[in-house]
Prior knowledge:
This protein is mainly beta. Helix content is 5%, strand content 40%. It has one domain (43-177): Jelly Rolls, CATH 2.60.120. The chain has helices spanning 32-37, 167-170, and strands at 2-5, 12-15, 19-21, 24-26, 46-53, 57-63, 71-77, 79-86, 97-103, 109-112, 116-122, 126-133, 142-144. The longest helix is centred in the first third of the chain and has 6 residues, at 32-37.
Amino acid sequence: xxxxxxxxxxxxxxxxxxxxxxxxxxxxxxxxxxxxxxxxxxxxxxxxxxxxxxxxxxxxxxxxxxxxxxxxxxxxxxxxxxxxxxxxxxxxxxxxxxxxxxxxxxxxxxxxxxxxxxxxxxxxxxxxxxxxxxxxxxxxxxxxxxxxxxxxxxxxxxxxxxxxxxxxxxxxxxxxxxxxxxxx
Length: 184
């Protein structure tokens, strides 16, 4: 597995070694030993999966400490634009966002550490997203940032008239007003 660091500290892209032949392909999407050899010492405790159609924007979500989660995100079907925002106070990239296309075809995964808001938009007709978490969901710790906050200036690659956003996500606070318990 190739592990690539991004310009944002602790945010990593993982690309598995894919073995293809006439039958199809095989790859390890997660191997605890390989992760540990690459300095990623996590114990995942929960898997979440979603299915969404073109134009859906989910996010930007995170959980506050002490129930914060690291996520390992990948796509089983389709293509998404995966987006994270560094909300760790004191980080050299505080308030900056990073985006990457994840797809069933490219098989890339994004490791989203604690202290990042996370969301994605669906660029294909349909997408199935799976992410592993190193902490359990806790409703009281649920928090988020408005996906279209002008201060963040995120290009979700979806025309405004095609965006499908939940009522919950439409009323999340701006970045400057979000609940935040993270420090770098």
